[in-house]
């Protein structure tokens, strides 16, 4: 069976693997159980070029791009620009070696579609944060979702799937976080200076993120916005920045920290300690409150939903519960917080869009500040389009990692099983080949009645795709 989709010829495929083209063209596909082989359109298998021929930045054997990172040729803080440059210079499939580790950067939407289409139920990734994985191993902690693979990952993921990934799962959490948002708005009004600006707005957003997720995780108000927890909140925000920063730096450094306590490793350990010790303190107190409520028969139906759910899962150890709670508590800091900052910035600089967004909120939730409901949130289609468009304009994610499990041909090159690939969708987010008016903040392009060209569905995937996609996606959107 041959399926000819955009840019690719696909031989012997599973029905579920042909994600778009055949379905759209109304073609029938036979079910097959054989291994899938993909070929670049118009090429026979012998035309597929060897892995060694994939172009990319050059460097000395083993070290590869290392000296460019260290001597200034590549600025790690400006990776989005570097990736766009590599795409322009080398094409859709680019190979990079760094300290003996070779990865393939994928910029071709068809190749991205093929990689996702080939996933089984346990997609493999490189650890999201290798240093955090090391810290957790050394501290005897559970590694957490983003740092595991195979059976171990599946065990953890299936345990949280029901709670995190279904709208019904997160809807009961809405009444808990809505008052936090209202308090945050009041808090901002109070913080405005004489020029109507909020100093260090990013940290304020971080405090809001922690206060919100703290309510979900521990069923209490931590006082991170204006109460007695303010210092703790700022320490957490700073620690999260440090972890993020050093993880990035150590990712392009000689791995001395794996063998010695280097100054950067010590600094990172201290920051991880701040996060973990705060988690331990809050978790212990929450479990104590939960136990008291249960003992006194006063536990309400909607109280301690998150902890009760995790504690009820037999397959999770206490260590697993702690790491999963840490993830829910702090993952919003390097993700939701900057993304919300970008959204607010774009709304502030585009008053027409801001007006339309405001009118939607006013009409969908006219009784503000009456609590928002899951229904009213799901009716906010324009706000959702604004969120999507803000990710397209300013993304805090550079790539999504996968390790291929099968040999395949991508963009005309042979990619052996076991190759680490980076799906670099964000490098395409402002590419004129894929978006009209690429530099304009235009949420309308995501609305159903948009008459312009529909964006390719395999480009804007801010939360990833498939079984391994972001576990916080339903909570964010
Ligand atoms: C704007 C906010 C966010 C964005 C853009 C984002 C993006 C992502 C992306 C791209 C991935 C990798 C997906 C893949 O490999 O296919 C991911 C994974 C993950 N995210 Fe998020 N994320 C956000 C917020 C959150 C929040 C708030 C949480 C926690 C509540 C969270 C928890 C996770 C976890 C646990 C994983 C690992 C999933 C796994 O490996 O099974 N994320 N996220």
UniProtKB/TrEMBL annotation:
UniProt keyword Metal-binding, yes or no: yes
Origin: domain of life: Eukaryota
GO molecular-function terms, A-Z: heme binding; iron ion binding; monooxygenase activity; oxidoreductase activity, acting on paired donors, with incorporation or reduction of molecular oxygen
UniProt cross-references to InterPro entries, sorted A to Z: CYP11_CYP27_families (IPR050479), Cyt_P450 (IPR001128), Cyt_P450_CS (IPR017972), Cyt_P450_E_grp-I (IPR002401), Cyt_P450_sf (IPR036396)
Keywords of this entry: Heme, Iron, Metal-binding, Monooxygenase, Oxidoreductase
Binding-site residues for heme, renumbered to this chain: 470
UniProt keyword Protein transport present: no
Any Pfam family the entry gives: p450
Necessary cofactors: heme
Family under the similarity heading: Belongs to the cytochrome P450 family.
Protein name: Cytochrome P450
Species assigned in the record: Littorina saxatilis
């Amino acid at each position: 069976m041959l399926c000819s989709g955009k840019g690719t010829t696909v031989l012997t495929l599973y029905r579920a693997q042909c994600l778009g083209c055949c379905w759209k063209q109304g073609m029938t596909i036979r079910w097959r159980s054989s291994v899938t082989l993909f070929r670049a359109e118009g090429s026979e298998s012998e035309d597929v070029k060897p892995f060694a021929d994939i172009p990319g930045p050059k460097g000395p054997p083993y070290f590869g791009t290392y000296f460019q990172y260290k001597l200034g040729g590549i600025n790690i803080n400006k990776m989005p620009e570097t990736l766009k440059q590599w795409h322009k210079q080398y094409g859709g499939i680019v190979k990079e070696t760094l300290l003996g580790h070779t990865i393939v950067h994928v910029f071709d939407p068809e190749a991205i579609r093929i990689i996702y289409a080939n996933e089984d139920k346990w997609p493999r990734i490189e650890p999201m944060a290798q240093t955090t994985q090391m810290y957790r191993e050394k501290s005897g902690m559970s590694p957490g979702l983003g740092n595991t693979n195979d059976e171990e990952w599946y065990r953890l993921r299936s345990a949280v799937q029901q709670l995190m990934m279904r709208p019904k799962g997160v809807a009961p959490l809405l009444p808990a976080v809505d008052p936090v948002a209202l308090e945050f708005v009041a808090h901002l009004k109070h913080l405005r200076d004489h020029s109507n600006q909020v100093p260090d707005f990013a940290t304020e957003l971080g405090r809001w993120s922690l206060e919100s997720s703290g309510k979900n995780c521990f069923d209490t108000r931590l006082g991170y916005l204006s109460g007695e927890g303010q210092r703790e909140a700022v320490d957490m925000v700073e620690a999260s920045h440090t972890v993020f920063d050093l993880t990035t730096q150590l990712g392009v450094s000689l791995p001395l920290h794996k063998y010695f306590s280097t100054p950067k490793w010590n600094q990172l350990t201290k920051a991880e300690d701040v996060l973990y010790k705060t988690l331990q303190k809050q978790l212990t107190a929450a479990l104590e409150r939960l136990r008291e409520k249960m003992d006194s028969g006063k536990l309400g139906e909607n109280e301690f939903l998150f902890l009760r759910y995790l504690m009820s899962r037999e397959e999770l150890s206490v260590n697993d519960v702690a790491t999963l709670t840490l993830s829910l508590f702090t993952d919003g800091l390097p993700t939701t917080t900057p993304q919300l900052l970008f959204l607010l910035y774009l709304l502030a600089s585009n008053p027409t869009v801001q007006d339309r967004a405001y009118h939607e909120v006013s009409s969908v939730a006219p009784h503000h500040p009456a609590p928002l409901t899951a229904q009213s949130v799901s009716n906010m289609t324009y706000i959702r389009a604004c969120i999507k468009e803000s990710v397209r304009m300013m993304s805090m994610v550079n790539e999504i990692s996968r390790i291929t499990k099968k040999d395949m041909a991508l963009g005309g090159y042979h990619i052996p099983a076991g190759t680490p690939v980076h799906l670099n969708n964000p490098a395409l987010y402002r590419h004129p080949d894929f978006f009209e008016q690429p530099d304009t903040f235009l949420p309308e392009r995501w609305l159903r009645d948009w008459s312009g060209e529909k964006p390719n569905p395999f480009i804007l995937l801010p939360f990833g795709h498939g079984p391994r996609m972001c576990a916080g996606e339903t909570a964010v959107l």
